[in-house]
């Protein structure tokens, strides 16, 4: 068949399906509005086409429009069908809390391709004892007591990144990715492993291209290449592990924590979790930083306030004749900058939602969530609810002068799987913003207001800017 006949054929098939849709729907979708068979009932909503479900609608537009229109139509809890899975989505803080705090009823769930790519031993995919053990180790390496010691190393990475952007037009997101990657490696491997940086970077950049590709493992496909890069990464990690074993002194970084004798983790488990942490740490933090640059650029008053706050920290250090390097204590004196970060996390809500799967039939507020269904707390909808955050689309850091009510603000999730890296993320953002605002000015280039999705919301084209030294 040539292209044209394939086109005609698919148009015809589509047409047939369209005619048959009401009939198919009658047989295949449980009727949401009837209480006749079961009590409790499924939440309201539609399941869309069998198999394809409403995936097309979700991915063909800004996903937030999809969620918002569903919420408007059906309320704060509704059912739908994406990527072949029936699911329940919820935008109520109470329901989100219910789902996130009951780990025994709702387990983590990811597409199989992601599991293959990150490695099935990575923390995200687990629950119970193994999860608790990993979590303890990860939290230990990223808690304030530990990361306090690497503030000046993070600062070195920040200043050298900024220097390399001087006088150039840059893609903010790409450059921020490089910064957050280097900070992630520092927190995982300590300072010794700079020599592996380039190799790790090269492999990881190939690997990530496969994250969202079709999981077809044939020579030439993106997926195949990224699986190969995955193997090479594991080899580099094996080399690092064996060097460390010869050195035989304990280190406080994440790798040291994973390698502790009494933990008994295998090399594969360590490798999967290190790749997992890089994955969790890099693009998330880089996209938030990109949004911060955008919002600061659009809100001159906020930028002034942040710049003054940061300059006064710099001046105070100079006057006291203190060592110029930033300290943990300095980063605790940045309330205005902190609120800018909080508000950016709210408005941009880069992780719009998370996934869980019901491990048994669960009843919530009279609604049935059947075993095996996915459950999605919609963080973004909660963060953009006008009842919780008046004028939700407005960027206004001052709203965080008052602490939000519990479970209304969850940029780092909550409960058993809440982000263990949140302190590090905030720290590296503060350090970068300190140097950015005190030493540089920048202007945005090109189209100003587009947003791209994939997988995180990002300013169009990664926010191209031109950066120069302040005079
Ligand atoms: C601003 C940047 C970041 C944001 C917005 C963010 C957000 C989140 C959220 C919402 C979760 C929970 C997902 C769920 O419950 O399903 C999570 C989990 C996680 N994050 Fe972050 N994160 C960020 C940066 C980081 C960094 C820098 C690290 C590592 C240093 C990190 C490591 C992790 C890990 C390992 C998990 C999985 C925890 C578990 O399953 O127990 N994240 N993150
Ligand atoms: C289904 O049952 C619940 C409680 O039993 C009731 O509140 C609700 O109105 C019923 N829905 C319909 C569509 O009949
Ligand atoms: C997480 O949940 C607990 C218990 O419901 C609550 O006290 C806390 O405020 C929540 N955290 C956030 C960030 O909402």
TrEMBL record:
CDD domains: CYP90-like. It is found in: Membrane. Signal peptide: none annotated. Keywords: Heme, Iron, Membrane, Metal-binding, Monooxygenase, Oxidoreductase, Transmembrane, Transmembrane helix. It comes from the Eukaryota. Its main location: membrane. It holds the Pfam family p450. It is a single-pass membrane protein. Belongs to the cytochrome P450 family. This is Abscisic acid 8'-hydroxylase CYP707A2. It comes from Ziziphus jujuba. The lineage of its organism: Eukaryota, Viridiplantae, Streptophyta, Embryophyta, Tracheophyta.
């Amino acid at each position: 068949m040539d292209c044209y006949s394939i086109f005609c054929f698919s148009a015809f098939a589509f047409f047939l399906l369209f005619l048959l849709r009401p009939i198919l729907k009658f047989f295949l979708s449980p009727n949401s509005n009837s209480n006749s068979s079961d009590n409790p009932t499924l939440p309201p909503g539609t399941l869309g086409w069998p198999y394809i479900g409403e995936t097309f609608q979700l991915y063909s537009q800004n996903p937030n429009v999809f969620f918002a229109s569903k919420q408007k139509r059906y309320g704060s809890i509704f059912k739908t069908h994406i990527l072949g899975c029936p699911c329940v989505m919820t935008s109520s803080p109470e329901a989100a809390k219910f789902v996130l705090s009951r780990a025994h009823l709702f387990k983590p769930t990811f597409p199989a391709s992601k599991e293959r790519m990150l490695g099935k031993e990575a923390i995200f995919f687990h629950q119970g004892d193994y999860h608790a053990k990993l979590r303890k180790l990860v939290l230990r390496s990223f808690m304030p007591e530990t990361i306090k010691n690497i503030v000046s190393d993070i600062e070195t990475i920040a200043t050298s990144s900024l220097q390399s952007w001087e006088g150039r037009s840059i893609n903010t997101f790409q450059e921020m990715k490089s910064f957050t990657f280097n900070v992630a490696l520092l927190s995982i491997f300590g300072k010794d492993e700079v020599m592996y940086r380039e190799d790790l970077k090269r492999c990881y950049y190939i690997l990530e291209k496969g994250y969202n590709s079709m999981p077809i493992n044939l020579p030439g496909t993106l997926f195949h290449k990224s699986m190969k890069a995955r193997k090479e990464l594991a080899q580099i990690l094996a080399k690092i592990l064996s060097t460390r074993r010869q050195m035989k002194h304990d280190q406080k970084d994440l790798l040291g924590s994973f390698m502790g004798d009494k933990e008994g983790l295998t090399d594969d488990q360590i490798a999967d979790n290190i790749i997992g942490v890089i994955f969790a740490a890099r693009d998330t933090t880089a996209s938030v930083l990109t949004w911060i640059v955008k919002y600061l650029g659009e809100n001159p008053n906020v930028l002034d306030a942040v710049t003054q706050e940061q300059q006064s920290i710099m001046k105070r250090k100079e006057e006291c004749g203190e060592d110029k390097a930033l300290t943990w204590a300095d980063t605790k004196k940045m309330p205005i900058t902190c609120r800018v970060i909080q508000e950016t996390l709210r408005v941009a809500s880069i992780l719009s939602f998370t996934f869980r799967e019901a491990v048994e039939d669960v009843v919530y507020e009279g609604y049935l969530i059947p075993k095996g269904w996915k459950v999605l707390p919609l963080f973004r909808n909660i963060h953009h609810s006008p009842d919780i955050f008046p004028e939700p689309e407005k960027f206004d850091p001052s709203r965080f002068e008052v602490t939000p009510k519990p479970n209304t603000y969850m940029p780092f999730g909550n409960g058993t799987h809440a982000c263990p890296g949140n302190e590090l993320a905030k720290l590296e953002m503060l350090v970068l913003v300190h140097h950015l605002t005190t030493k540089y000015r920048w202007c945005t280039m090109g189209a100003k207001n587009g947003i791209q999705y994939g997988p995180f919301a990002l300013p169009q084209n990664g926010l191209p800017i031109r950066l120069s030294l302040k005079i």
